[in-house]
Amino acid sequence: MAVTITAFEHSPDRGRGLARDMRVRWALEEVGQPYDVRLLSFGAMKEPAHRKLHPFGQIPTYEDGDLVLFESGAIVFHVAEHHAGLLPSAAHARARAIAWMFAALNTVEPPIVDRASAILMERDKVWHGERLPILDDRVRNRLRELSSRLGEADWLDGAFSAGDLLMVTVLRRLIGSGILEEYPNLSAYVGRGESRPAYKRAFAAQLAVFAGTPQSG
Ligand code: GTB
Fold first, then answer.
1. Ligand 1 center to 80 CA (angstroms)
2. 14 is in which domain, residue-wise?
3. 191 and 95, same structural domain?
4. Are residues 98 and 189 in the same domain?
5. What are phi and psi of 94, to 5 degrees?
6. What CATH number did the domain enclosing 73 receive?
7. Is residue 15 part of a domain?
8. What is the structure's pLDDT at 33?
9. Which of 37, 58, 75, 165 is the best mutation target for the ligand 1 pocket, counting ligand atoms within 8 Å of the beta carbon and taking the most?
10. Whose CA is nearest to atom 19 of ligand 1?
């Protein structure tokens, strides 16, 4: 049965792989699960047909037979639970990898998204110049802690896992900000994720949408 995900028809990131379908594509590529992509305009995302799949009218969604999922973290978790390769089989290591999935989405991603949203939507506010350094420092605090935990290791807890997959996608939102580059081990960590063959296939697939030559995964 074919898996279908949804993605932006016109991603505002212009193919940089920053929208949240990227993490789902990457997970599917890591486990070797082929998938189809339904591209949606901003208007179509808010239509009742899509809201039946996603209560908040967003991408990505995931359909596999009778199962419909929304929330990129839940989708990656589902993929990781049902295929080998993204979660360790030993119970404690698996629990720790899942903890890193939550850490990526609940602890590291929020300050990064707050900063990105401020840059995108609050530039015209008189207080923007005062607020941005505060948001930058909140991001730096998290990155310093993450950097300290990662140390010289390749991945967060032993072998590459869904926790690393989510963390790398979260950190990529900072590329070009200069902040990620302040933490060389985190920059290298992101680079290791980006150099995985599955990442490259996922990135190419979403870039092909921007370039106007969409392919199936
Ligand atoms: N918590 C949800 C999840 O993880 O799945 C969040 C889903 C979400 O924010 N989806 C966004 C969306 O559908 C796209 S990814 N937005 C349309 C809407 O809400 O109407 C967020 C995103 C968008 C653009 C960039 N960018 O251009 O860099 C990066 C990330």
1. 21
2. 3-85+198-209
3. yes
4. yes
5. -65, -45
6. 3.40.30.10
7. yes
8. 98
9. 58
10. 58
Integer Cα distance of 190 and 196 in angstroms: 10
* Tokens found for residue 128: 């923007």
What does the pLDDT read at residue 87?
Answer: 98
* Ligand 1 centroid, distance to 26 Cα (angstroms): 16
- The structure tokens listed for 130 are 């005062």
Q: How many helices (H) and strands (E) does the chain have?
A: 10, 4
Q: In the prediction, which pLDDT does 139 show? A: 98
Q: For residues 38 and 53, is the Cβ–Cβ distance under 8 A? A: no
- The reply to whether 114 and 167 lie within a common domain is yes
Judge whether 217 lies within some domain.
no
Say whether both 52 and 71 belong to one domain: yes
As for ligand 1, residues whose beta carbon falls within 6 Å of it are 12-13, 18-20, 45, 57-60, 71-73
Asked if residue 121 is part of any domain, the answer here is yes
The ranges of the chain with pLDDT < 70 are: 1, 214-217
Nearest ligand 1 atom to alpha carbon 75:
5
| Within-domain flag for 216 | no
Could you tell me if 54 and 119 lie in one domain? no
Tokens of 143: 């990155």
Total-model pTM: 0.97
What pLDDT shows up at residue 1?
64
* pLDDT at 121 (0 to 100): 95
What does the alpha-carbon distance between residue 193 and residue 1 come to, in Å, rounded to a whole number? 29
- Cα(58) to ligand 1 centroid in Å equals 7
Q: What pLDDT shows up at residue 42?
A: 97
Ligand 1 center to 196 CA (angstroms): 24
Closest CA to 172 of 129, 123, 120, 108: 108
Ligand 1 centroid vs 169 CA: distance in angstroms?
Answer: 13
pLDDT at 213: 78
* Same-domain pairing of 191 and 107: yes
Question: Number of structural domains, the chain?
Answer: 2
